[in-house]
Amino acid sequence: MSSHNESILREPLVTGKDITYAKVTDDILLPVENKPNKAWWIGFIMAALGASLWVVSVGYTFWTGIGAWGLNKTVGWAWDITDFVWWVGIGHAGTLISAVLLLFRQNWRNSINRSAEAMTIFAVICAATYVVAHMGRPWLAYWIFPLPNQFGSLWVNFNSPLVWDAFAISTYFTVSLVFWYCGLLPDIASVRDRAAGLKRRIYSIMSFGWNGSVKTWQRFEIVSLILAGISTPLVLSVHTIVSMDFATSVIPGWHTTIFPPYFVAGAIFSGFAMVQTLLLVMRKVLNFENYITMFHIESMNKIILATGSIVGIAYLTELFIAWYSGSEYEMYAFSNRIAGPYWWAYWTMMTCNVISPQLFWFKRIRTSIPISWVLSIVVNIGMWFERFVIIVTSLHRDYIPSSWAMFYPTWVDVGIFVGSIGVFFTLFLLFLRFLPGIAIAEVKLLLKSASLQQKAKLIREGHLDAEQVTFFKNSLGKYDSVTEKEINELETK
Amino acid sequence: MSNIKYIIGSFADPDEMMDGIDKLQANNVSIYDCFTPMPIHGIEAKLGVKPSRLPIAAFCFGITGTCLGFSLLYYTMTYDWPMNIGGKPSLPLPAFVPVTFEVTILLCALGMVATFFFRNHLFPGRAPRVMDLRATDDRFIIAIDANDNADHGKIESLLKEAGAVEVKYNERKYVSYE
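^ Those are the sequences you sent over. The predicted structure of the assembly is below.
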């Protein structure tokens, strides 16, 4: 770790001068140890209002039944499943960042994994609410789990992907929660040891008595590694199974083998966009610019570009196969998507998901904070429309033209969707208020290898190839947290 | 002997702490434990801490999950109440894969983490056994049992020589959280 230096060619992951271990703790715990600022309160009040809209809409649905939604006998699944898949997809980036990037030893994950994992958990909570709400009789939701026959029902049908989904989502939620909380233990202990009174007592209970001894850290690292190793196939399996909810049916437009990889790529795509939406605001409001740097933003934009392109290819492949299959139902499903009554949804999806991320080929756009933020929201709008297009346009024109119908959402549909965004932000803002938004211990690991001050020290010491130093200096130009003056000061003494 | 139970060498830099461990070990001073705000790679080898056996536990829990998951599916779908679903076999192995896999992952994760918590005595409400409050912030701590190692002056000079910012003589083993 600290005993060997990282190549000067690599861009720094922590910027700023005089960043000591103590300063890392101070900076990251600032929002936890102090009263929240105005921006937090404004955000929280708006989110809480959204969450109350959710309570009202879901309460109304439970009271009157799912007739409160705009469903009809042709379109039996609409916004509920669209929103469910959208939220589950968003959740995937958190696991990708914390697990897959850990396995690939991508150190830049260290400063974004905590909030991304929190996002995963809250997104899966939002998704799970739709599963329960769309059942019609939510108090019987536990019937999805295998209960003995004496209970009054047969065993559940394990051939059904809907049952697999119940297992996949509940496993995913549990494992993500465990992974997130294990990672939090050392940071909660940091809060605990700096707090006093009641606050210390509460954080002490939450810290499980963490003390940072050699054996604890050793086991901690093993646990993290293995959890990452098993979360990686898990996260792939979850969205694969979600896609099978559709792919194993015989509806034209759903019955395709491309669905699993296409859904997984789409999930990572939308998840990174949501991480970007959240982190760009968080780094500004909580002054985390030195820890979530332009390198992080650019890297995430590159992933959005890559996964967006995969999604684009999947759309085109779908179209090609619909034509190549020679199946008239399949062909009709797709021509109906492109030019039918829902053409606007299809073209919104195409524009937002396929065209807009291609802008990230330009470095200037990739490293621009306002444009990245706007595009991240555009991507999430596009991904919502993707699910809407898949679900509603495949259903609304049945085999019998007399049963063709359109779907019109009611206020309850809209209320549940907008409300779930409120629930998500309420949870996320509470998380930022009470728990460290960046993994303190993991950022400390970077301090003596991947930080700007360490690289500056290496340059000062000399022994480096002048060309490489120039390369490094040029790469710093994009950082908004490094000034021109600081770059010029990087001289060999 | 005095009431001193533990000598605490407090370092501001992990490399200096590692140097301190080397110096103490070269002088036959036994180290009780180290407390750090982040994992220090290579410290286990230095202190002779054995590699963790948690991967074995994780594997055992995972295999148990596979067996449990598969048994559940076999019992419900094939043994207890086989159903004729479109004339398909009542032992549809490919359809058993997803749930078996999920149960494997679930048991592996929960079992391994439970083992970790059990072995390290981590549970909600446990009184933290912390020797120095700054060990979770910016200090790297070497703790030395004062009764096992008599020459306190020498220990202090070794720690200072390695770069310790502070050397404390604790009369209580752990910091009180009261």
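The two ends of chain A are 26 Å apart (CA to CA). Chain A touches chain B through 69 residues (CB under 8 Å).

Shout if you want it in another format.
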